Amino acid sequence: MSLPSVAICQQSIILGGRLRVIIEIIKILNELGIVPDIITTRLSFKPEQISEKYGKQVRVNFRFIPRIPRLRQEYAIALFNASLRHYASDYDLLINTSNSLIFLPGNKSVLTYMFYPRKSRLMAEALSIHEPEKKISPWTRTALHRSLQRRMYRWSHPKPQHKIICMTKFTCSALAQVYELPETPPIIYPPVDIAVFQSPSVQRRRSVVTLGRFGPDKRQIEQIKLAQQLPDMPFHIIGFAHNSSYYQRCQQYVSEHAVKNVHLHPDAPFSEILKYLQGAKYFLHTLINEPFGITAVQAVAAGCLPIVHDSGGQRETIPDPRLRYQNLEQVPEILSRLEKLDSSSVSRLLHRLQDHITSHFDTRIFRTEMRKELLALLNM
What are the residues facing 235 on neighbouring strands? Predict the structure, then answer.
């Protein structure tokens, strides 16, 4: 009997947390003997970089479909989903990771792993849920497109024969606010290779590490300005630099203001990321309304004390409110308070965090839960 055919569908794929989830889904399928296709319009990386950046070997084929250059993202995603109707007959299951339900093939088995619903982003009054301080000016091109996109998403509805899995409780709540759901979707937290990040070393440098692609919503420039207030605390800012203009702004700020304690690490290999996470005392995350926050979990696994924004999925990943802040001005005070803790108090705090992440976010949990869902959908 032939094995089921599976395609993972995402309009555009970049290096980052979402690709980590896709890789783990591929690994589960590979273990079942299935080599899936990835259907996409473009990759921002070379396929061989998967092994280099993530330390994973997977068997997968890439199927590229035509795209319209310079088309706004929401329209591009909608057009991509609509075009899947032409490819759906080749597969027993489509796995949708584009965060949008609009125009998906209605007569096909589709599994959506929802990181955060596109429709919820469009319903927000701010330009971005991650930059709530930036409002949309009326009578602008952006405002016009937002209005058109909201109208377009009136055609977006969950289909009874489609399966939705939410990444976090935060994701599930956002989904329920914009869709009438027949039932509450299951939650499967993203996979984290906790053992890969663990370190036996308890000797920590008094430094701060941040990790995330360079971009305005990740707020690396704000991180640099924070570092200026703490000149005796080294900051290592690590991230994918595909947004070259924003990365250059970060470089320029460091240079023009002679910020000596900030070290930028663009496109660092995994070995370098691991070295800094396993050597630093603190980890800082500055994205607001982060749907999950995989880097904070990785940092805890590596032995860092995390400091994260008090919003989104970070309330699930970092349950201790003393390690969450409402605005960046509170971070120096949090660091000062943590610096005053004795070694036994630090050890107890870190162990509680590590017990939490191991019991909720370890890769083995994701694989177990996702494997059950895939086996049911594939009738295996």
Answer: 208, 262
DSSP β-bridge partners for residue 12: 42
pLDDT in tens, 215-266: 999 999 999 999 999 999 999 999 989 899 999 999 999 999 999 999 999 9
Please report, as a single letter, which amino acid is at residue 373.
E
Closest C-alpha among 298, 323, 299, 295 to residue 309: 323
Lookup result for tokens 């930036």: 134
Say how far apart CA 114 and CA 188 lie, in whole Å: 10
Whole-model pTM: value is 0.90
Cα distance between residue 112 and residue 164, in whole Å: 5
Q: What is the pLDDT of residues 41-50, one digit of tens each?
A: 999 888 888 8
Pair 213, 243: CB distance under 8 Å: yes
Asked if residues 357 and 300 have their Cβ atoms less than 8 Å apart, the reply is yes
6-9 and 110-114 strand pairing: unpaired
Helix (H), strand (E) at residue 283: strand 280-284
